[in-house]
Specification:
The chain is mainly α. The chain has 14 helices and 3 strands. Strand 1 and strand 2 form a beta hairpin.
Amino acid sequence: MRGKPPVRTPQELASLLRAARMPEGGLRATAVWLVSGRRESDHTRAAYIRDVGWWVAWCLATGVDAGGPSTTAADVYMAELKASGLARATVGRRVAAVSSWYTYLVREQCVAVNPFDGAERPRLDTSTSTTRGMSREQMSALLAHAARHETARTHALLWLMFATAGRIGSVLAARVQDLDQDRGHQVIDLTVKGGTTKRFVVPPAALAAIHAYLAERGHPEDGLLFVTRTGRALGQPYAWKLVNRVAHAAGIAFKISPHSFRHSAITIALTDGRPLHVVQDFAGHADPRTTRRYDRARESLDRSPAYELAASVTPVPQHPAPDMTAGT
């Protein structure tokens, strides 16, 4: 239930499914499912592979037929996921992935039912975000440190992560030709969650850092924006180590992740009073409740509309009209 995933690649998942005696039709349908819908991006597809792999491995270990499991088996699996100490969000994600897979297999007539259909999934706390973010001052210190002591690539990468509030997979997949102009704005097109493309403004400071990095590389016209010295793509494990090393050097005493840059950008924007719908669009959240999780000041009494509401209905004092007959 925890630790190293049983599979990481489509080939490994196919081998596991064959070991679980999944019919070839189910294997073919799974291959199509993995490259369709919301699984078009490599990062999303890899997550679905791992999550389905956990379920199939559990079926093999417990003698459950993955090609025709009962709803009871699904309930036992969810109970064991919860008992293993996994976060609610992780349990919910794993169940959602397997349920999506079975829904597709049912549609393709490869299995009879989806055993997770209608299952009671763990309720998530949508009021807060558990990601550790950085304050405005900490972010400024980190970027300033990177400008003085880190490579041009690191400085540009950190700036783009913060300026776009982009997920690390989107930023690392960015290409040089994705940089452009739009109605006087410097922009970059990133592939975001769900495989769609979203256009982000690149502010001057971030653009200057990117141009300095590209100048070191001889101003390439295409290809990946961030690469190793040998021209290969940067990996997410490298990004995790990098941000923590730079943060520690900049005086930030707690561990962060690449997602901390996204978290910090959204939180700072909300703290600055940017309208919720504007920040929601910037972050690419489908549900405004997700954006609200980042609003640290949402309970602040300073924001209370009570004063304005009271003023809008309080009658204006009426002074008595002067007596025009006085003295006559």
